[in-house]
Write a structure and sequence with these properties.
It is a single chain. The protein is mostly helical and about 140 residues long. About 70% of the residues lie in helices and about 0% in strands. The protein has 5 helices and no strands. The protein starts with a helix and ends in an 18-residue tail after the last helix.
């Protein structure tokens, strides 16, 4: 019982973090409120500014954050949230590992998502176990 409560809190906190980040990115992309985060290295800053200058990556990221974070808040849709956020979290991990030098943040972020994915692992087998062509109607 205590384990499920810890997982629920971890899931909701992770989901709300990404949902709030999605709102912040969307406010900046649409209305210019706020700004991109300050990066610790020039390479990370240049990469972030290039993505922002493209004017389509930030809205896509905010959409992924809003959908993934919002889905994680509810237990029923948590596996969908994990699937939506997985590519983003992997890019964040690589970004922190290679560009920002803050590997601990990227590793913690990936470990948190993997822990949630492990807890919801029973929801994922249907993604890979579909019927053969001969069994389809």
């Amino acid at each position: 019982m205590q384990y499920q409560r810890i997982v629920a809190v971890a899931r909701v906190v992770f989901g709300l973090f990404y949902f709030a980040t999605g709102v912040a990115i969307l406010l900046y992309a649409l209305f210019g409120i706020g700004g991109p985060p300050n990066q610790p290295t020039p390479e990370a800053s240049e990469f972030t500014m290039a993505l922002t200058a493209s004017r389509f990556v930030d809205p896509l990221l905010s959409l992924a954050y809003l959908i993934g974070g919002g889905a994680l808040v509810r237990h029923r849709s948590a596996p969908l949230g994990i699937l939506v956020l997985a590519p983003v979290v992997l890019v964040i991990f690589c970004f922190h590992l290679v560009l920002s030098g803050q590997w601990i943040w990227g590793t913690a972020n990936l470990a948190w998502l993997l822990a949630l994915a492990w807890n919801y692992r029973s929801a994922f087998p249907p993604l890979w176990s579909y019927p053969a062509r001969s069994q389809l109607p």
